[in-house]
Write a structure and sequence with these properties.
Blueprint: H1 13-26, H2 31-50, E1 55-64, H3 70-80, E2 85-92, E3 97-106, H4 108-119, E4 124-133
Antiparallel strand pairs: 1-3, 1-4, 2-3
Length: 139
């Protein structure tokens, strides 16, 4: 179990007021938990940039499945990068549009390259990558 350390910070009153409003909107129980989340987020982003540790994440795609050969192209890309892909989920949004969520794990640059290939495929309406830590180095 880790030790809890208390420390004080100095902050502009107006900035603190805005921060408190954000905490209320996000339903944080207290400032400490919000600050812990901000620290964790900064550490995770640093992990992505170092490219020395694996990251986990999700690639989200929205596309019209009636678009000629699009599904085959996306499937071919995924099969070519099967070492990075943990799983995928295909959801039918309506008669034409599908949402695909692809769970990925690998080195940051490789994951980003895969996400770019998928979301830049002609016919994809929307694509995003959300990278996360594998949790090994974050408290």
């Amino acid at each position: 179990m880790s030790q809890l350390v208390r420390f004080g910070i100095s902050i502009d009153k107006e900035l603190l007021t805005k921060f408190d409003r954000l905490l209320e909107e996000k339903d944080y129980p207290n400032r400490s938990e919000a600050i812990r989340d901000l620290i964790r987020e900064s550490l995770v982003k640093r992990e992505w940039m170092t490219d020395e540790r694996e990251v986990g994440g999700a690639v989200v795609l929205v596309y019209n499945h009636h678009r000629r050969e699009l599904v085959n192209k996306l499937t071919d890309i995924q099969h070519g990068e099967h070492k990075l892909i943990l799983s995928s989920q295909h959801i039918h949004l309506d008669h034409n549009n599908c949402l695909e969520i692809i769970a990925v794990k690998g080195m940051p640059k490789e994951v980003e390259r895969l996400a770019f290939r998928l979301k830049s495929t002609k016919g994809v309406k929307y694509g995003s990558l959300s990278m996360a830590t594998t949790g090994e180095e974050i408290v």
